[in-house]
From TrEMBL:
Residues 18-124 form the Rhodanese domain. PROSITE patterns: RHODANESE_3. It comes from the Bacteria. This is Rhodanese-like domain-containing protein. The lineage of its organism: Bacteria, Bacillati, Actinomycetota, Actinomycetes, Micrococcales. Pfam families: Rhodanese (PF00581). InterPro entries: Rhodanese-like_dom, Rhodanese-like_dom_sf, STR4-like.
């Protein structure tokens, strides 16, 4: 079973703005939330759900991810936008959510910081590069 698809950061923002029940789930690690920053949804009257897909520093997958998603009150029919650093972990999280019954789980392409450029810097795509609101953790 495939997840609902990939969306750009701008499309995720529009969904979060226009769909009252839409939820952004940031699946990065606590370290990333603290040191890199967080999407700022305050102008929409929302907060991102912070739920690690993999733990830092081991990289172990959070086997309780979907249980924690349910415990956070995310409805299974809610538009769900999953975000990581570059759009890789969030695909795995979207697939897991879909397997467990979330019907509208989307991956946010390029994540919060985007892929590496030729100098191995993350500044070519993603939430931050798109100019969407964010705050330092």
């Amino acid at each position: 079973m495939s997840y609902a698809g990939d969306v750009t950061p701008e499309q995720a923002w529009a969904g979060l703005r226009d769909e009252p029940g839409a939820v952004l789930v940031d699946v990065r690690t606590r370290a990333e939330w603290s040191y890199v920053g967080l999407p700022d949804l305050s102008s929409l009257g929302k907060e991102p759900v912070l739920l690690e897909w993999q733990s830092f520093p081991t990289g172990a997958v959070n086997v309780g991810f979907t249980d924690e998603l349910a415990a956070a009150g995310v409805a299974k029919d809610a538009p769900l936008y999953l975000l990581c650093r570059s759009g890789v972990r969030s695909v795995a999280a979207a697939e897991a959510a879909t397997r467990e019954g979330w019907t509208r789980a989307h991956n946010v392409l390029h994540g919060f910081e985007g892929p590496h450029d030729d100098q191995r810097h993350r500044s070519v795509a993603g939430w931050k590069v798109a100019g969407l609101p964010w705050v330092q953790g």
